[in-house]
Design brief:
Largest sheet: 7 strands, mixed
Oligomer: single chain
Bound molecules: ligand 7TS
Low-confidence stretches: 1-8
Structural class: alpha/beta
Shape: globular
Strand content: 15-25%
Radius of gyration: 22 Å
CATH superfamily of the largest domain: Type I PLP-dependent aspartate aminotransferase-like (Major domain)
Mean pLDDT: 96
Helix content: 25-40%
Number of domains: 2
């Protein structure tokens, strides 16, 4: 009998780490341990090279020139749109709008779709775990339109209370804008199920994918969201590039966001006709170099495979929970059953900022504060947390250093 064994290839973290030049840095005489990946990930050499290659060889403004450089730059820029389309399972390339980040993508929807469709008395639903980027644009819109902002509460584990969400949905609900994965808790929300329920109530759904796009398999068609926003810099890509996915018929019905070059077909002083999708929403010269390099970041992720990255990060998350909980006085904030690689915690009698400073003295980068989620901190009656968030290049040894650093911090601060 022939038995063929498929041995699962584990992640070669040592090889992966070699692709990130910044990981050779020393901070205060110690090797950098970068655990602030939910804020932004580090960049592999190939992404850095793609930016240098563009500026060195074919820097030109796109879409407007007939010269060779302009044609090369345009083709490379537009190729990223195709790569993004496939990466998130969009139906067509016209549905991919380049912005400067998640924040701009959400604002684009608030200022265009929102202003056109929201009226006095309409209701917009968000949740208690939103990043300020998915709160403030809707507050501004609600104030302007005399609409009502409703907030889905969360339980002590940091999970949405879905029964409350069900009760909120009704004929007045025009929009549900919900975070896919919480940046401060790591909670993964059941967005597909929530979208189905919102659609049954006749509402449009926007998903803030800033934290999910790098960890989860995203298929916007299967999810059936109407809008999906994310930022390249949280996916090993450059800063200053974001994506707004929108269903074509919705994007077509929306007025433009900004006026200027690129987003027009014809301009006279009497009338301007707007360009087709996606250019209608891309006024002015875009961030050409970084959009070009973004596809290199996506290819980097795909070359390893999201599933393998997830397995690795899950192992780190479980190890971090197990070891951090042994530290006296430390409490983890956010213990959702479905969670990605973010650990937020507080230490009794210690201010998160002091924890951050002591860790930085040991070369360990974590984020401290409210993580742009002040209403969430209020929910837990805390001013902020310290947050360690993991990426493909982190190791258990680094987590051991984190634990050592925290044990020391407890001795000094608590
Ligand atoms: N939404 C979520 C869930 C986020 O985590 C962030 C950034 C944003 C929106 C905004 O993304 P941007 O690229 O437009 O800035 N989150 C964080 C963080 O957790 N620490 O620094 C930035």
């Amino acid at each position: 009998m022939n038995i063929s064994l498929t041995i699962p290839k584990t992640l070669d973290v040592t090889a992966i780490r070699k692709e990130f030049p910044i990981l050779n840095r020393e901070i205060k005489g110690r090797p950098l341990i970068y655990l602030d990946n939910a804020a932004t990930t580090q960049k592999p050499q190939q992404v850095i090279d793609a930016i240098v290659h563009y500026y060195t060889n074919y820097n030109a403004n796109i879409h407007r020139g007939i010269h060779t450089l302009a044609e090369e730059a345009t083709a490379d820029f537009e190729q990223t749109r195709d790569v993004v389309k496939t990466f998130i399972g969009a139906g067509s390339r016209e549905e991919i709008i380049f912005t400067k980040g998640t924040t701009e993508s959400i604002n684009l929807v608030a200022y265009t779709w929102g202003r056109k469709n929201i009226r006095a008395g309409d209701e917009i639903i968000i949740s208690n775990m939103e990043h300020h980027s998915n709160i403030v644009p809707w507050q501004i819109l609600c104030e302007e339109k005399e609409a009502i902002l409703k907030v889905i509460p969360i339980n002590d584990a940091g999970e949405l209370i879905l029964d409350e969400y069900e009760k909120m949905l009704g004929s007045k609900t025009k929009l549900v804008s919900i975070v896919h994965v919480s940046n401060a808790l790591g909670t993964v929300n059941p967005v597909k199920q929530m979208i189905t329920r919102a659609h049954e109530a006749g509402a449009v759904v926007m998903v803030d994918g800033a934290q999910s796009a790098v960890h989860l398999d995203i298929d916007v068609s299967d999810m059936d969201c109407d809008f999906f926003a994310f930022s390249a810099h949280k996916l090993y890509g450059p800063t200053g590039v974001g994506v707004l996915y929108g269903k074509k018929e919705l994007l077509e019905s929306m007025p433009p966001f900004q006026g200027g070059g690129e987003m027009i077909k014809e301009v006279t002083f009497n009338k301007t006709t707007f360009n087709d999708l996606p250019y209608k929403f891309e006024a002015g010269t875009p961030n050409i170099a970084d959009v070009i390099a973004f596809k290199t970041a996506i290819r980097f992720i795909e070359s390893i495979g999201k599933e393998k990255i997830r397995e690795h990060e899950k192992e780190l998350l479980e190890y971090a929970h197990q070891e951090l909980e042994k530290i006296p006085g430390l409490h983890i904030i956010g213990k959702a059953r479905d969670k990605i690689s973010v650990v937020s915690f507080i230490i009794e009698k210690a201010h998160p900022q002091d924890i951050g400073i002591l860790l930085d003295n040991r070369g360990i980068a974590v984020r401290t504060g409210h993580h742009c989620a002040q209403p969430l901190m209020d929910r837990f009656s805390i001013p902020g947390t310290a947050r360690a968030s993991f990426a493909v290049y982190n190791t258990k040894d680094e987590l051991d250093e984190l634990v050592n650093g925290l044990k020391r911090a407890v001795k000094i601060l608590a």
